[in-house]
Amino acid sequence: MKRTLTSNHYHKFFLLALLIFSTSVLTSNYANAQGCSDAGFCTMGAMRPDQPFSKNLNVKLRSVSMTQYIGLTKFDDRIISYIAEANVGIGDKWQAQIKLPYTFVQGPLANTNGLGDVSLSLTRSLVQNQDWQINGTLGAKIPTNDANFTNDVGLALPMYYQTSLGTYDIIAGISFINKNFLIAAGVQHPFNQIDNGFKWGIWSEHPLTETANEYPVSQFLDRGTDAMLRVEYNLRFSKWSMNFGILPIYRFTSDKITNPETGEREKLENTKGVAVSGLIGGTYNFSVRSSLKVLLGKQVQQRYKNPDGLSREWVNTITYLYRF
User: Which of 306, 302, 243 is nearest to 277 (CA)?
Assistant: First the structure.
């Protein structure tokens, strides 16, 4: 008897293809791409990717999710984070979000792990009608440590090995959403100096001196202010969806460090500018309550220097989301 493929078969094939593609990316030794930085503001509130659009005006969204994030750096560091997130509707127009990651870093200098920065945000529906909506977000990031992890003999590690950025940040953003398009913009500003002590001289007697000297100095780093723009196109069906987008992140102000030789504060050249990523993602809805999301990113352009450790070669996320 000849068998025909139903829409349910296609949905299963689509989900399987996403998982196979995601796994192949993670195991590849030739990755060369970058997604959103670990600063994380491009996944907060109105700035996050693959947002649902509803023609109903009074939708109260409540959800919890768990995300596995994997990023690879040009120094062969692997960053693995598990991110717990909750979104709770407040009235008809407000939504609160909290994110808490736990991060593991594996690299040639050391292996570290610990809590990542806590993200908090409030998002308000500013304009909503039958065809489109505008949302605004105000949020903050709270550090969980001083970003000064050391190796097994007490030498300060680069920011690439830190599980926290070590700064108190404020975030603001806005988005436009309709059935097929998402356009979002946001700004993130840090308020304090990072208490990181990494400099080349302290590694001079270590067997990994040459490797350590490849990382940018980050002694008492001041991160610059970032702005982001997300432009995304969505194809949505009853059980699954796909999204394609571009994500530029622009650093307006140069990073600053304390010069290890003079002890004076100085601006770092080539730390301003834009990093641009191309993104592709997919979602499979098991039911109206639960979904599986996959997101991949590829670098188009990056800043020359990233002393804050936020540069990534490959970024991949897999998220299970439950709505209630």
Answer: 302
